[in-house]
Automatic annotation (TrEMBL), chain A:
Gene Ontology terms: cellular component: chloroplast; cytosol
Alphabetized UniProt keyword annotations: Cytoplasm, GTP-binding, Hydrolase, Magnesium, Metal-binding, Nucleotide-binding, Potassium, tRNA processing
Main location: plastid
Name this protein carries in UniProt: tRNA modification GTPase MnmE
Signal peptide (from-to): none
Lineage: Eukaryota, Viridiplantae, Streptophyta, Embryophyta, Tracheophyta
The keyword Nucleotide-binding appears for this protein: yes
Organism: Rhynchospora pubera
Automatic annotation (TrEMBL), chain B:
Molecular-function GO terms, alphabetical: flavin adenine dinucleotide binding
Gene Ontology CC entries for this record: mitochondrion
Family to which the UniProt record says this protein belongs: Belongs to the MnmG family.
InterPro entries listed in its UniProt record: FAD/NAD-bd_sf (IPR036188), GIDA_C_N (IPR049312), MnmG (IPR004416), MnmG-rel (IPR002218), MnmG-rel_CS (IPR020595), MnmG_C (IPR026904), MnmG_C_subdom (IPR047001), MnmG_C_subdom_sf (IPR044920)
Residue numbers spanned by region Disordered: 694-724
Full protein name: tRNA uridine 5-carboxymethylaminomethyl modification enzyme MnmG
UniProt cofactor(s): FAD
Length: 545, 724
């Protein structure tokens, strides 16, 4: 009974929810009030009307609050590539910033309490400590989340900043997780643009923003142009063309039913399947690229004093880690960057894991475990001198159970490194391989002191991750964040399309997600899909009076 | 501007502040007694149509009009086609004294091409016009020969009703309707000039015979008549339609006012005598057993006997005859450059472009119950008349056919619609509105949709009320108009489902719940319709509630649901979740006694759609909401795009030409990039703030004048300080 919704849109909108004044009160007085309200708020003599379906009012009012505003954007806002910094920040801004952050961020407190299923309800300007998880529930990084709710934020929208470890790998992963949770990648200068449009910045800054954006968009256009020649874009193009073709087939039937032969659904579904497969391939490549670009995280774990730090030093040809004879020397996670056949990798030397009463060491042990959880490859180091001990067995069991409890769908492959190979007693060798073959994908013998075995270890790392050395000619293309996002949106649309087909929804519903897929694939050029589909219909089919 | 603030409802609930008396709502023509009463009260002379008789017999406010003002109206509608009728009726029903000028009184609401209303996308337009209180839906329901629902299994948003109509009956019925409105006056005339006032505002129109009619709002719906020229083969003559003279002079007049005009072409196939057709070998196409309706008004739902259409096909002789005579066709013979619209190619086009297709479908559609003409759908041609009969006779069943009218093409002037804003008022001349084919569209439904909007706005303009714009996302009508005024058209625009991005939300079944409240607010929906509407919505709501609460377990019903849907039915399942299962329809509930007898078929459909597709609908709605938030930001009308150096040159040009009303509209203009939109947003926001600052300064200054009379404008320095 809510009456027609006349949306008057003055240029400045005070608060979004005023724009949809759903009146549940059926009286005319309310109605009149509404119009009077409109009079007051318009300065222009025209009345723009967006009518609402009265039938769906009741069920939607709850959702409406959540979806107000333009999309939620995300980006790494600290500088990248300038050497390792202590902290890097991924910023989310927009109406669903909290929801997106809630999907990727698990506050430590609540994990203990209830397993982390309830929506995150942060207090504004109240720092929370926790983990960022990816789609599969893998821990990516430990972070501090800083929620700044509207309007008390830079953009005057809800903003959540995730303070991560300052290496590029972590940052890119956290950003990716945010994109997967529904945020879109911010355009250059978009935070500032929003800040300005929401009345946050000084007027004099407007020109700078405009200049920035036009410069960046020119740069983006250049880079997009450069990308056009690449293999990736030809894939995107072909996927998009296929989407348009399918749309053409479907929509031609909608508009010109009796002039066309009926559709062959099985072949259509086959086509969709093939496309989905292509898309999955592209995403796999993107994931491969993710490793290429952001690098591998390799955690070296093990009991104290098995030579983990020596291994790191030998591998990175540096003296990053302090090496002593004393067990428990390393108490924090030490990082070193290496390049494995062209793929960047970060080695994480961790504190030796053992039961200890030393408070500092205890914390170190905890961090070791966290590092192991977040790594792409885990290297378990043991000493050839001691052989496979009880403690080793306990330790690895502990890691495996904590991996499981962290709900990781995909556990990182593990490599067993038998260090101090030069001092080995000969009789123990065979039993290692027997005991450990189930847990470890590879066993490598090294000698950190001489550097022997390091290149075997590198090969093993690439092998367990399924990476071939980069030089081989088979490499297809690289995918950047934006292209990744594009693929992601397309895949989401295809997943929905698949459900529609499975649930046997009428074919008009298929067009909705096909259209979205085509849009996602075409975003760089911003084409008009309707017109394209129509042109295609008219050129393909014989239709007319 | 302040005086022009909206008074949208005032006329609805407070009686009249106009210079003449009106009855605010007089939509019902079915409540005969009432309207007749008021008719008599106001016009003792009954059907006398001359203005002078009205004026002299008028009461109340009419005395104020002197003799020389007798040709004064609130709204003048030029053209009595589907746009003109809808515009004139809407305007008159809103209480505006409306004059409808038409070239031929006997051709009101004529259907010069296919005798059909509706079809995909077009039917949505018809439902929407009806939901707003328009006429086309009722007319089609009253005069149908056959009705079919198309796309029945393809989804609720694309289901489309199409009616074959009796074109004579249609014209007669519409004539009766326009004649029976006491605010509406009809006159035969050819308008050759629009009269313009000092402020580039419309004042009226001048006719060929020298009459001047005055009004603050004029709607031009010239159809194919403006400098119309028809072609059969190489022969052509000036005409708006076969047998009707063209309207000459108006184009030049509009051009002299600075309007850009262009030319479009369309055509219509031959008509044959149904008595000369052998139907025995042809495939009949029957109407639906269960008739559906365009109008939401149950008073129009009167079933009648249906007629049959027939299907035939082109043969190899057809193709041969065309191939042999290609040089006799305008396109391939090379004497006409203009290509026809892509969606209705001529038969020669089809045969040339789709060579490998051996045969094309041809539909034979009756044009009326009392006329022998059959419309040969799919067979329009530019061939000369002498070849047309031979061509028709190559079709099975038409071997001995008699041709009643040859196929012909028509060329006419239109005004590219970027010259209108989305209210359909022209940007150049205040109070001048364009609707229908003059805006480059084709189709009765498209015409009616524009007609009702321009009629409403013409009436509102004459009352100095704010004009109404239906946003693109609100309706097919909104989509149509947005496309028209924003996009660069190269062919007559036909509404198609694929043009609507949000069609799942813009369905036929919810046209009333989307637009009837607005129609009520505007004043086109009377109390009876409003009550019908409200009780319908209530029933639907209650039924949805009921289905949510009634639970069933096991039994025959569950078994059949399982068979139909292929999904198991758990115990204590609500009817709602059963209805959500694939292929389960409300009918199944009815069959097992779980339905609600108080609901009409169409209400059951509404319930079913709302429940079955709730998830999708919700997703689309949130999607739309985002778009609304981003795109519905308004652009000031006086923006100087050329001065915005951050915009690309192309978009500066395009934006100045189209002058979009919102950011969304701007982004849909070809050649305007996303970066341009960002630049535009920044520019507008900075300007807004500058303006704010200025007003603040002025306030400051006016407050400060007493104190700082002598000081050398201290406020200026403040301006500078804040601007840096």
């Amino acid at each position: 009974m809510a009456l027609a919704l006349i949306r008057l849109l003055p240029w400045r909108q005070p608060k979004p929810h005023h724009l949809f004044p759903f009146s549940l009160n059926p009286t005319k007085t309310h109605f009149l009030f509404h119009l009077r309200h409109c009079q007051a708020s318009t300065s222009s003599p025209k009345t723009l009307i967006l009518t609402q379906d009265e039938r769906s009012n009741g069920s939607l009012s709850a959702e409406r609050e959540a979806i107000v505003g333009s999309g939620t954007i995300a980006a790494i806002v600290t500088s990248l590539g300038g050497g390792p910094a202590a902290v890097g920040i991924v910023r989310l801004s927009g109406p669903t910033a909290v929801a997106v952050a809630g999907q990727v961020f698990r506050p430590v407190k609540r994990v203990k309490e209830e397993g982390g299923c309830v929506a995150w309800r942060p207090k504004s300007h109240f720092v929370e400590y926790g983990y960022v998880l990816d789609n599969d529930g893998n821990v990516i990084d430990e972070v501090l989340a800083v929620p700044m709710l509207a309007p008390r934020s830079y953009t005057r929208e809800d903003v959540v900043e995730l303070q991560c470890h300052g290496n590029d790998v972590c940052l890119h992963r956290v950003l990716r997780a945010c994109l997967e949770a529904g945020a879109t990648l911010a355009e250059p200068g978009e935070f500032t643009l929003r800040a300005f449009l929401n009345g946050r910045l000084d007027l004099s800054q407007a020109e700078n923003i405009a200049r920035l954006i036009s410069a960046k968009s020119a740069a983006a256009a250049d880079s997009a142009l450069a990308g056009i020649q690449g293999g990736f874009s030809s894939l995107v193009k072909s996927l998009r063309i296929q989407c348009i073709e399918l749309l053409t087939e479907l929509e031609a039937r909608l508009d010109f039913e009796d002039e066309l032969p009926p559709l062959c659904f099985p072949s259509l579904i086959d086509k969709i399947r093939v496309m989905q497969h292509d898309l999955q391939d592209a995403l796999d490549t993107a994931n491969y690229d993710k490793l290429l670009q952001s690098g591998l995280q390799i955690a070296i774990i093990g009991r104290p004093n098995v030579g983990k730090s020596s291994l790191l030093n030998a591998w990175s040809k540096s003296e990053r880690a302090i090496v002593t004879e004393i067990a428990g020397t390393t108490r924090d996670v030490v990082e070193a960057n290496v390049s494995i056949h062209g793929i960047p990798a970060t080695l994480l030397d961790t504190a030796g894991i053992r039961e200890t009463d030393d408070i500092a060491e205890k914390i170190g042990v905890k961090r070791s475990e966290a590092a192991a959880l977040a790594a792409d490859v885990i290297i378990m180091a043991i000493s050839a001198v001691d052989g496979w001990s009880e403690e080793d067995a306990k330790l690895i069991e502990h890691i495996v159970t904590s991996q499981k409890s962290a709900n990781q769908a995909m556990t990182a492959p593990m490599i067993l490194v038998i260090n101090k190979d030069d001092c080995k007693p000969k009789d123990l060798l065979i039993s290692f391989e027997e005991i450990c073959s189930g847990l470890f994908k590879k066993v490598v013998r090294t000698c950190a002191l001489t550097g022997a075995g390091i290149s075997e270890l590198e090969k093993a790392v690439l092998e367990v991750r399924g990476l071939e050395p980069i030089s081989s000619a088979g490499r297809k293309w690289t995918v950047n964040q934006r292209q990744f996002e594009q693929l992601l949106r397309t895949q989401e649309a295809f997943v929905r399309l698949h459900t529609s087909i499975e649930e046997q929804l009428p074919m008009d519903f298929w067009t909705i997600d096909l259209r979205e897929a085509a849009l996602a694939l075409g975003q760089i050029s911003g084409d008009d899909i309707s017109e394209e589909v129509l042109t295609s219909i008219f050129s393909k089919f014989c239709i007319g009076k | 501007m302040a005086s022009a603030t909206p008074r949208l409802l005032s006329s609805l609930f407070t009686p009249l502040r106009l210079t003449y008396p009106i009855h605010a709502i007089r939509t019902s023509h079915r409540s005969r007694t009432l309207s007749f009463l008021s008719f008599n009260l106001r016009r003792p002379n009954g059907r006398l149509r001359t203005v002078s008789s009205f004026a002299s017999n008028g009461t109340n406010g009419m005395e104020r009009m002197g003799q020389k003002d007798e040709e004064r109206y609130d709204v003048i509608v030029v053209g009595g086609g589907h746009a003109g009728c809808e515009a004139a009726l809407a305007s008159a029903r809103l209480g505006a004294r409306t004059l409808l000028l038409t070239l031929n009184l006997d051709r009101i609401a004529w259907q010069p091409c296919n005798p059909a209303v509706g079809g995909p996308a077009k039917s949505q337009l018809v439902h929407e016009v009806d939901a707003l209180g328009g006429e086309i839906g009722k007319m089609a329901d009253r005069c149908y020969l056959q009705k079919r629902v198309l796309n029945l299994s393809k989804g609720p948003a694309v289901r489309a009703l199409r009616a074959q109509t009796d074109k004579r009956e249609y014209a007669m019925e519409m004539k009766k309707v326009v004649e029976s409105n006491s605010n509406l006056f009809i006159r035969e005339a050819m308008v050759t000039e629009v009269l313009i006032g000092k402020n580039d505002n419309i004042q009226g129109v001048r006719t060929f015979f020298g009459m001047d009619f005055f009004a603050p709002s004029v709607v031009l719906t010239t159809g194919t008549f403006m400098s119309g020229k028809i072609w059969v083969g190489r022969a052509s003559m000036p005409a708006g339609r076969a047998g009707e003279s063209a309207s000459l002079g108006l184009t030049e007049n509009l051009q002299s006012l600075g309007f850009e005009t262009d030319r479009l072409k369309t055509g219509t196939p031959a008509r044959v005598d149904c008595r000369s057709i052998d139907f025995s070998g042809l495939e009949p196409q029957y109407g639906d057993d269960e008739v559906s309706w365009f109008s939401f008004d149950p008073e129009c739902h009167i079933e009648r006997e249906q007629m049959c259409c027939y299907l035939t096909r082109t043969t190899s002789e057809t193709h041969k005859l065309i191939s042999d005579n290609l040089n006799e066709t305008p396109t391939y013979g090379g004497w006409v450059d203009a290509k026809g619209p892509r969606y209705c190619p001529s038969i020669e086009d089809k045969i040339v472009r789709f060579r490998d297709k051996e045969s094309h479908q041809i539909f034979l559609e009756p044009e009326g119950r009392t006329v022998p003409e059959l419309y040969v759908q799919g067979f329009s041609t530019g061939l000369p008349e002498r070849l047309q009969l031979a061509l028709l006779r190559t079709l099975p069943g038409l071997e001995n056919c008699v041709m009643l009218r040859p196929a012909y093409a028509v060329e006419y002037d239109f005004l590219p619609a970027y010259q209108c804003s989305r209210s359909l008022m022209t940007k150049k001349i205040e109070g001048l509105f364009f609707s229908g084919q003059i805006n480059g569209t084709t189709g009765y439904e498209e015409a009616a949709a524009q007609g009702i909007i321009s009629g409403i706005n013409a009436a509102r303009h004459s009352e100095r009320k704010p004009l109404i714009v239906l946003e693109r996302e609100s309706s097919y009508i909104g989509t149509l108009i947005d496309d028209l005024v924003t996009k660069d058209l190269r062919e007559p625009y036909r509404m198609l489902t694929s043009r609507s991005e949000h069609r799942l939300l813009l369905r036929a079944d919810n046209a009333d719940s989307r637009l009837t409240p607005l129609g009520r607010e505007i004043g086109l929906i009377d109390d009876r319709r409003w009550e019908l509407y409200q009780s319908k919505q209530l029933r639907i709501k209650e039924e949805k509630e009921r289905l949510k609460n009634v639970r069933v377990s096991g039994g025959e019903f569950a078994a059949e649901v399982t068979t139909v849907s292929g999904q198991p039915v758990r115990d204590h399942t609500t009817l709602e979740s059963i209805l959500k299962k694939p292929h389960v329809q409300y009918k199944l509930l009815d069959k097992h006694g779980f339905g609600n007898e108080n609901l009409s078929r169409c209400e059951k459909d509404c319930v079913e759609i709302d429940i079955k597709y709730a998830g999708f609908i919700m997703r689309q709605q949130s999607h739309l909401q985002q778009i609304v938030n981003q795109e519905h930001k308004r652009l000031p009308e006086d923006l100087d795009y050329y001065s915005m150096t951050t915009l690309s040159h192309e978009s500066r040009e395009k934006l100045s030409k189209v002058r979009p009303q919102t950011i969304g509209q701007a982004s849909r203009i070809g050649g305007v990039s996303p970066a341009d939109i960002t630049a535009l947003l920044i520019w507008v926001e900075s300007n807004r703030r500058k303006a704010n600052q200025r007003t603040q300064q002025e306030l400051l200054r006016s407050g400060a004048t007493d104190n700082h009379m002598a000081a050398s404008s201290p406020t200026d320095s403040v301006v500078q300080a804040t601007a840096i």
